[in-house]
Specification:
2 domains, 5 strands, structural constituent of ribosome, YqgF/RNaseH-like_dom_sf, alpha/beta, Nucleotidyltransferase, domain 5
Length: 222
């Protein structure tokens, strides 16, 4: 491909990537609701977390509604108990492996309270779950719990959650590694800023989360 044609193709691809990222970042936030996050899976089960209205983790466990374990009745019972115990108002299901099956399972359950069900992008959740920010906030939990928390928080406030990771792993388009990486980074960084999240604001979001960790630790330990 001639250099000029390659440059034009890169520019168009980068424009598409940036627009996809913008739509992700500006997705309407659910707000301060009590949310259940589900990171779906087959063999390893579905990791379930419950968050309070401020996005703090209050409970986590696994359910196994799909083969090969296939404990649907037990999984349904656990879901109902968690939803009632933590007064869950919405459920966020990651859009990865077993997402469709998990959504089908959840939406066919009868709960004692009204609960909205959403499927959210889990791209980049594994990057966040292994990051220092996630380890600092959840030092006693493994990456599966952190990933499910990220999925739930993306429903509550997509912008505040997604800016914690580098834009490129969010999965904003095909072949993003084939284009000019310098141009791509500049475009994606500019998109983040255009969505109202400068590096200063981004740092402030993370600082607030760190402060929340400190306050929880202080209240627990004096």
């Amino acid at each position: 491909m001639p250099p000029s044609v390659k440059a034009q193709a890169d520019d168009e691809a980068i424009r598409v990537f940036a627009e996809n990222l913008r739509q992700l970042l500006l997705a309407p936030p659910l707000g301060q609701k009590r949310v259940m996050g589900i990171d779906p899976g087959f063999r390893t089960g579905c990791k379930v977390v419950c968050l309070d209205a401020q996005g703090n983790l209050v409970h986590n466990e696994n359910i196994y509604p799909h083969p090969p374990v296939d404990k649907k009745t037990e999984a349904a019972s656990k879901l109902r108990k968690m939803i009632e115990a933590y007064k869950i108002e919405a459920i966020a299901i990651g859009n990865g492996t077993a997402s469709r099956e998990t959504e089908n399972f959840v939406t066919h359950q009868q709960f004692d309270r009204p609960v909205q069900v959403f499927v959210v992008s889990e791209q980049g959740a594994s990057i966040y779950s292994a990051s220092k920010t996630a380890r600092d906030e959840f030092p006693d939990y493994d990456v599966t719990v952190r990933g499910a928390v990220s999925i739930a928080r993306r429903l509550m406030d997509p912008l505040a959650e997604l800016v914690k990771i580098d834009p490129k792993p969010i999965g904003v388009g095909q072949y993003q590694h084939d284009v000019d990486q310098t141009k791509l980074k500049k475009s994606l960084d500019q998109t983040v800023e255009n969505c109202g999240m400068s590096e200063t604001t981004k740092g402030s979001v993370i600082k607030k989360r760190i402060l929340a960790i400190f306050l929880r630790h202080y209240s627990a330990n004096g």
